[in-house]
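Listing 4. Sequential folding, example run.
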Amino acid sequence: MTLWKLEWLRLKRRRTWVALAAVYVVFGMIGPLTARYMKQILSSVGSSDGMVITAPDPVPADGMIQFVSNAVQIGTLVVVIVAAGALAFDAIPEMGVFLRTRVTPAWRILVPRLVVSFLAASAAFILGAGTAWYETAVLIGPLDAGPVLGGTALGVVFLAFVVALTGAVAQRMRTVLGTVMTSLVILVSMPLLGLAPAISRWLPTSLANALADLPGGGTMDDYWPALGVTVVATALLVWLAFAWAGRRDR
């Protein structure tokens, strides 16, 4: 059995793909629904307290904004957990020894796990974005295809960065939990750096919000710096993952 087939079977039998798809599809359904009835929800809450809360009528872009606001946070968490479970193969010493004594160099173990984790995460995200796009068109109104597809593509690039980051961290940590926590700390710290406008446009995390911004009138020009940094950082993280995994063989 090849490592590629083994990784696909592991993803299938552990049902991790179900968790990924469920998170994005559920938010793809809830996001546009929330945007469509937000005005009524706020009105009912305000009337119960004797207050009057007004909200503008929803526009199609609001459906994608609501989807992204929930899916980016929870979805990224699930992606990190799933990727850590695949990439921290040394967390179970017996498994690590078994793989390393039969497959050399170590990067050959990582490649299928990196690729399959990325494909599963990106497929789930695309499915969720498609669900949100369709439901937005039904409940609120149609969206132009260009901005939605562009925002989705940038979101996929961000997920490639997330998986590569988790892969690199996994080679320095000894447990899946350590990999998850360290990866999340790094990802959470980026938006904090992004509070400075001069820095935010260069951060990979800004790509995660492109699907909310572009349909509402944003332009791709705002994302070229972050896209360039993300592509370079992803390649560097994959290289580090290979290098650090190889050091454990010595």
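-- end of first protein; second protein begins --
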Amino acid sequence: MQLTVASGKGGVGKSSITASLSFLLSQDINLVSLDADADTPNLEILLKVERWEGKKPFEGERIAVIDPSKCTGCGICAKHCPYECIYPEDNHYKVSEILCEGCNVCSIVCPEKGTINFKPTIPGFVKWGKTSYGFPLVTAELLPGRPNSGKLVFEAKKVARKFNHDLLLIDAAAGIGCSVIASINGSDYVLVVVEPTEVSLTDAQRLLKITEHFKVKTFAVINKFNINEEYTKQLEKFFSERNIKVVGRIPYDKSAVEALIKGEPAVKAYPDSPFSNAVKKLTENLKQIF
């Protein structure tokens, strides 16, 4: 079974909630957690990985490589490169690995055949290890400036599924990008985290279009509901009109921020706080759904 926690915008508390859910659900369910926010993975901080047991490079798209010993410095490749990623260096030309898309134009126009070849990129890694709380965590980690976050998340999901588990709990990236689509694809359930603001609702509407496309059973949790209870009512009405059940209402609570500073799930650091009590109730509601 796969549950993906997602949010249309960042900063709504998605990862904090996921970390606490991982801690609580793992006490009764054989669980593996996956940090699919490949650009900025941070679950490892909150879940305290004792040691990384493995790290696998992810092979991405190819890029062009110019052999300096064969390059005559004519510059024809740079003139025709549609991405403007080839530049002169000493007496030859070189390819910017960050900008190259591997389109093959440079190789076609080069008069010195065999001078330009291609190699695969390593845009990121998948790593895995055991948390301090006894369950495994798999992390998708994209290197700065590299593409293919969606493909990297798919690879991370393959690694996560190799663990013996009954529940794969995924912390998706914020927004509706490729990595989010890769996270939601194949899910049995999606938990959408929102806060009572107009921006959060607008972004959640975009996210729901993805869950509707994949026909995934979707639920909602309203975080920091008490900062604007009037707008919380509008959110509840919005979800009710779309037959999306609100399975949790979590109050704004400074202990959640303090737990982040300590690097622990809030339900572990402050088990009796208003935030933790609300997440415990959310966990029980999810268990009934499972």
